[in-house]
C-alpha cells in the first residue's frame, strides 16, 4: 500500500495517526512458522540474501506463527539516523561481492498484514497496529517497530502534528506519514487513507539520456536527462535534468550502465525543448533513480534544484509518475484560500545533554525556499567536520533573521537571551570603540551551541586566525593560521583566483608550508596554511610580501592594494586578513547569498581543473555529499603547523 502526497497540507484532525517517514528501501518481510524469512522489494526483487543479517530469532518472537510484515530497510549513520546514501553504498559493496555483514542495517516495521495464516488486510489500522505492538521482537537493533502518534495523544501532550513535524526535521527524518485510524490495507494501491508529508521532496525518475561532462568531469557524465509518466495519460514526459549530488563512483557506474542502452533519439512522447536536447546521448528508459528537489514548476513542469540520490533498482519504470506542482509559497503562487494548518512557533528538542527551543522552522531564509529548519539540519549534519575548525576561536555571527533578502547584522557580543550553558570568552575590543571596552564572544565548540546559533538565523560564522589561551581565556595565542583572501575584481571570477592560488601554492610549498584551499562561498577563494608564528604581526608581514611580489611579477592579474579602481579584471590578494583584529568566513559555513552556498574546501586538482566559475560553487546539499565522499579536506590544516619563514 502506498501513501498519497498531501501536497503540502498535513492532515490535522482526530481521524489521523502519525508516523515518521524514513529514508530507505520499502520491503515486505515474510516469516515462516520456523522463523525463516524472505524479503521482497516494492517491485518484486528478492532482497533476502542481501539482508541476511536480519534473519534469526523471529520464529520464537512470533510464537511459531507465520507472518507478513511491511516496513522500511534502512542503514544508519553515526548519529543513528537513516541515510539513503549509506544504503546506496552498501548496495554497491554487496553487488561487488564485498561483505556487508557489519553494516548497521535495520528493518523498521510499521504494519502487520498476516499473522498465523489469517489475513489482516481488511482489519482497521488501529487493530493491525495493536497486534504489531504486541509482538516481542528479538533484536531491536535489527528489527524494530516504528513509533506511532495518534492525534489524541499529541493533543494530550499539548502539541500539534506540525510540532511533531518540526521534531522530525530537527531529528533528521524525511517527514511524516499520516494514516487514518480506520484505514484498511490496499496492496499495490496509492490510497488517500495514507498521506505523506516529506520535509525534503524526493522524486523517482527515469533516466532518458545523459550529457557529457566538462572540466573535471571530462570523459564521464555531466548531467542526466530525466523523465516520468503523466499520471493521467501514461505518456513519458521530460521533467528536467540533474547534474549534482553524484559521487565519483556513481558517475563511473552510471556511465558504464548507460553505454549499452544508447538509442538514436529521445524516448519521450513529445520532443523535449531544443536547448535541452543539445549534445545528449539518449538511452532506453529502463533505469530508475531518485532525486531530491526544491520545486516542480507549474508552468513548464520541471524539477528545480534537483540533486541525485542514487539508482532505485527496487522500482520499475512503469511505476514512475510525474509529481504534481507544489502548492503554496515555495512555488511563488498564492496560498489556497481556505485556512491551512497553523505552523507551530516553537518546538523543544534535545541536543546531547541540552534542551533547546527552536522557532519558525518553516521560515524561508533563501529565495529558493531553503528554510530555517533546513539550515539547522545542514549545520547539525556538517558539525563533525565544522566544529574542529571553530574550537577556541571567538565567533562573529552574521545573522539574517528575515532571510538573505532582509536586513543582516554582525553580532560579536553574545545575545542577551543566550542560554547560560553557551560558552563565552571576554576579550578587549579591537575596534574603533576600544579603550577599555570588552566583547563577550561566543565559542561554538559543541553541537548544541551550533544548533542554538543556527536557530538565531546566524547563517555566517567568521573566525580569526588565532585561538584563546586555555590557561588564560582573556589572552590570545599567536596566530596558528596564515590566510590569503583572493577577491576577484569586476570582470574577474574565481577562475582567475585559481590561477593566482596555484602560483601562491608554489611559493608556499617552496617555503616549507602546506597550503589548503577553499571557496569563499561567494565570488572568491582563500588559501590557508598551518603555521607557528613568532609574533602576532609576522603573518601579515609575510603575506604582504608575497602579495606584492606577485603583483610585480603579474601586474595584469594580481593587485596587492585595496583601492577598488585598481582591481578591475584582477585578483586582489587581501593579505590584511592576517591582522589579529580581522576574521574570515569559517570552512563549511553557509553564506548569505541568493542560494545556500557554502565556503567549501576543495582539492588542488579541482583548483587546477577550474575553467568555469560554476565548477567551484557548492550548495549545502552538495557539500554534505562531498564530505561523505572526501571527508574533511581541511583536516590537514591543524596537522601541519610549519614554522613561518622570514622574508
UniProtKB/TrEMBL annotation:
Pfam families linked: DNA_ligase_A_C, DNA_ligase_A_M, LigD_Prim-Pol
ATP-dependent DNA ligase family profile domain ranges (all copies): 98-230
Enzyme Commission no: 6.5.1.1
Catalytic activity: ATP + (deoxyribonucleotide)n-3'-hydroxyl + 5'-phospho-(deoxyribonucleotide)m = (deoxyribonucleotide)n+m + AMP + diphosphate
Enzyme class, spelled out: ligase
Stretches the record annotates as Disordered: 315-339
Protein keywords: ATP-binding, DNA damage, DNA recombination, DNA repair, DNA-binding, DNA-directed DNA polymerase, Exonuclease, Hydrolase, Ligase, Manganese, Metal-binding, Multifunctional enzyme, Nuclease, Nucleotide-binding, Nucleotidyltransferase, Transferase
Keyword Lyase carried by entry: no
GO biological process: DNA recombination; DNA repair
Protein name from the UniProt record: DNA ligase (ATP)
InterPro entries per UniProt: DNA_ligase_ATP-dep_C, DNA_ligase_ATP-dep_cent, LigD_ligase_dom, LigD_pol_dom, MtLigD_Pol-like, NA-bd_OB-fold, NHEJ_ligase_prk, NHEJ_LigD
Record's keyword annotation contains Nucleotidyltransferase: yes
Family: In the C-terminal section; belongs to the ATP-dependent DNA ligase family.
Domain of life: Bacteria
Cofactor(s) this protein cannot do without: Mn(2+)
UniProt source species: Actinophytocola algeriensis
GO molecular function terms listed in the Swiss-Prot or TrEMBL record: ATP binding; DNA binding; DNA ligase (ATP) activity; DNA-directed DNA polymerase activity; exonuclease activity; metal ion binding
Amino acid at each position: 500500500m502506498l501513501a498519497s502526497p498531501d501536497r503540502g497540507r498535513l492532515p490535522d484532525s482526530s481521524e489521523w495517526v502519525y508516523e515518521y517517514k524514513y529514508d530507505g528501501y520499502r520491503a515486505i518481510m515474510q516469516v515462516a512458522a520456523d522463523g525463516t524469512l524472505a524479503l521482497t522489494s516494492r517491485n518484486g526483487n528478492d532482497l533476502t540474501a542481501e539482508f541476511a543479517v536480519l534473519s534469526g530469532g523471529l520464529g520464537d518472537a512470533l510464537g511459531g506463527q507465520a507472518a507478513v510484515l511491511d516496513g522500511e530497510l534502512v542503514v544508519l549513520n553515526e548519529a543513528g539516523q537513516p541515510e539513503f546514501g549509506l544504503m546506496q553504498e552498501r548496495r554497491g559493496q554487496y553487488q561487488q561481492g564485498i561483505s556487508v555483514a557489519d553494516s548497521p542495517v535495520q528493518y523498521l516495521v510499521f504494519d502487520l498484514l498476516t499473522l498465523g495464516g489469517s489475513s489482516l488486510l481488511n482489519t482497521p489500522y488501529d487493530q493491525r497496529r495493536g497486534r504489531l505492538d504486541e509482538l516481542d521482537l528479538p533484536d531491536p537493533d535489527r528489527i524494530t517497530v516504528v513509533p506511532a502518534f495518534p492525534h489524541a495523544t499529541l493533543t494530550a501532550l499539548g502539541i500539534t502534528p506540525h510540532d511533531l513535524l518540526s521534531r522530525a526535521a530537527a531529528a533528521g527524518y524525511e517527514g511524516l506519514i499520516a494514516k487514518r485510524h480506520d484505514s484498511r490495507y490496499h496492496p499495490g494501491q496509492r490510497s488517500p487513507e495514507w498521506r505523506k508529508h516529506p520535509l525534503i521532496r524526493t522524486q523517482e525518475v527515469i533516466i532518458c539520456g545523459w550529457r557529457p561532462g566538462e572540466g573535471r568531469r571530462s570523459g564521464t557524465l555531466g548531467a542526466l536527462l530525466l523523465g516520468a509518466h503523466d499520471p493521467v495519460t501514461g505518456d513519458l514526459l521530460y521533467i528536467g535534468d540533474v547534474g549534482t549530488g553524484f559521487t565519483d563512483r556513481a558517475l563511473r557506474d552510471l556511465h558504464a550502465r548507460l553505454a549499452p542502452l544508447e538509442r538514436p533519439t529521445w524516448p519521450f512522447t513529445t520532443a523535449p525543448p531544443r536547448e535541452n536536447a543539445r549534445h545528449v546521448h539518449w538511452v532506453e528508459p529502463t533505469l530508475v533513480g531518485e532525486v531530491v528537489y526544491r520545486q516542480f514548476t507549474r508552468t513548464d513542469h520541471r524539477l528545480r534544484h534537483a540533486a541525485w540520490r542514487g539508482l532505485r533498482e527496487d522500482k520499475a519504470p512503469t511505476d514512475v509518475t510525474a509529481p504534481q506542482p507544489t502548492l503554496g509559497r515555495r512555488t511563488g503562487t498564492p496560498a489556497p484560500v481556505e485556512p491551512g494548518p497553523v505552523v507551530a512557533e516553537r518546538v523543544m528538542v534535545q541536543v546531547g545533554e541540552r534542551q533547546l527551543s527552536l522557532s519558525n522552522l518553516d521560515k524561508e531564509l533563501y529565495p529558493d525556499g531553503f528554510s530555517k529548519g533546513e539550515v539547522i539540519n545542514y549545520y547539525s549534519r556538517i558539525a563533525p567536520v565544522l566544529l574542529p575548525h571553530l574550537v577556541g576561536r571567538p565567533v562573529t555571527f552574521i545573522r539574517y533573521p528575515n532571510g538573505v533578502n532582509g536586513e543582516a547584522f554582525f553580532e560579536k557580543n553574545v545575545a542577551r537571551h543566550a542560554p547560560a550553558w553557551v560558552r563565552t570568552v571576554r576579550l578587549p575590543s579591537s575596534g574603533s570603540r576600544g579603550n577599555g571596552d570588552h566583547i563577550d564572544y561566543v565559542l561554538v565548540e559543541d553541537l548544541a551551541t551550533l544548533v542554538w546559533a543556527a536557530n538565531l538565523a546566524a547563517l555566517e560564522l567568521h573566525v580569526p586566525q588565532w585561538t584563546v589561551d586555555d590557561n588564560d581565556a582573556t589572552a590570545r595565542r599567536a596566530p596558528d593560521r596564515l590566510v590569503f583572501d583572493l577577491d576577484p575584481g569586476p570582470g574577474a571570477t574565481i577562475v582567475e583566483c585559481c590561477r593566482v592560488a596555484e602560483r601562491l601554492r608554489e611559493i608556499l610549498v617552496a617555503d616549507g608550508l602546506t597550503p589548503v584551499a577553499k571557496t569563499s562561498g561567494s565570488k572568491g577563494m582563500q588559501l590557508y596554511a598551518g603555521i607557528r608564528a613568532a609574533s602576532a604581526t609576522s603573518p601579515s608581514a609575510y603575506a604582504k610580501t608575497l602579495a606584492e611580489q606577485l603583483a610585480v611579477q603579474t601586474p595584469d592579474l594580481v593587485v596587492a592594494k585595496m583601492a577598488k579602481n585598481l582591481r578591475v579584471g584582477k585578483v586582489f590578494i587581501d593579505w590584511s586578513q592576517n591582522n589579529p583584529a580581522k576574521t574570515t568566513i569559517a570552512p563549511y559555513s553557509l553564506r548569505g547569498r541568493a542560494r545556500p552556498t557554502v565556503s567549501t574546501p576543495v582539492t588542488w586538482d579541482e583548483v587546477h581543473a577550474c575553467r568555469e566559475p560554476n565548477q567551484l560553487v557548492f550548495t549545502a546539499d552538495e557539500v554534505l555529499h562531498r564530505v561523505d565522499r572526501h571527508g574533511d579536506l581541511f583536516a590537514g590544516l591543524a596537522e601541519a603547523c610549519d614554522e613561518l619563514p622570514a622574508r
